[in-house]
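Recall from the previous lesson that a structure prediction takes nothing but the amino acid sequence as input. Here we apply that procedure to Glutathione S-transferase from Jejubacter calystegiae. The sequence below is the only information supplied.
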Amino acid sequence: MITLYGAPGWGSAISELMLRLADMPYRVENVEGFDRPGPQRDRLQQLNPLCQVPTLQLADGSVMTESAAIALMILDQHPHLAPQPGTPERSLFQRLLIWLVASVYPTFTYADYPQRWAPDAPQQLVDNIVRYRQSQLLWLDQQLRAAPYALGSEISLLDCYIVVMEHWTPGEEWYRQHTPRFSAVAAAVRQRPELKEVLAANGLL
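The prediction returns the following tokens.
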């Protein structure tokens, strides 16, 4: 069985939703507080020296990190959670998954811990990053089909990112006003009965 090391509402929620959507057996080890010195950080660091969530320990004992890598691992076993190969939707899925993880996802790390990167001007760094993030999210919104999911009528692993990220800065109200397709996708995912338990446990309902 897979063990998911994570914290409620953090990026590990994305991977947990992916696992639940794929109906893959897993258990959660809550390491809330891992981002500061203490026993939870020490515990996670034994598995993942970078001390980040999500961290997955697979059934064979190997460790996997990075949400995009986890998504690709899940797709190897559950290819229906992405559009069919050879279709325009598949190309868009691949493009948006990598773009989202490379261009938007890192901004949360920088803005959440600005004193690490700009100790003399942490608020200025946060303000600049949030403006950049908003510009990227506006572009993303234009790429989504929202019919009712990101890429059409079938849910994909990309939708797991959207429903979680809607709760992060700039916040649900901003998304509703400026990225209506993004918000519509998140609302559709929240209606999936098989995901409600995970969403509730992560404070996403």
